[in-house]
Design brief:
about 120 residues
Length: about 120
């Protein structure tokens, strides 16, 4: 069973930066796709961006374009989300997930526990 653990969240002022990490217990042939999601209070969960272990990337959700960057380190079984110029509306619990297919509408079968990102004004 693939296990995912997120870290790197915290409290930051608007304009600041955070780097989230998602460490996988293993990479398998059945989970080539990795994605970051977020869920703000009183809002539905939304897809942020995704990547495969081979380096294929999706587009970013419009609200984070130019500010967030996804990357991976296969040797460490880790996917990162670099978040720059953070805004209060980025406040949410951020989750990483893994599945068979890459895209914003695909089903992801494995999820981490989430890490809280809070951006103050």
């Amino acid at each position: 069973q693939v296990k995912l653990v997120e870290s790197g969240g915290g409290l930051v002022q608007a304009g600041g930066s955070l780097r989230l990490s998602c460490v996988f217990s293993e990479r398998t042939a059945s989970t080539p796709a990795v994605a970051w999601f977020r869920q703000a209070p009183r809002k539905e969960r939304e897809f942020v961006v995704g990547i495969t272990w081979t380096g294929i990337r999706t587009d970013y959700v419009d609200s984070v374009k130019g500010r967030f960057t996804i990357s991976r380190d296969n040797a460490k079984n880790t996917v990162f989300l670099q978040m720059n110029n953070l805004k209060p509306e980025d406040t949410a619990v951020y989750y990483c997930a893994a599945g068979a297919l890459l895209g914003p509408l695909e089903r992801y079968d494995y999820w981490g526990q989430g890490t809280q990102v809070t951006v103050s004004s």
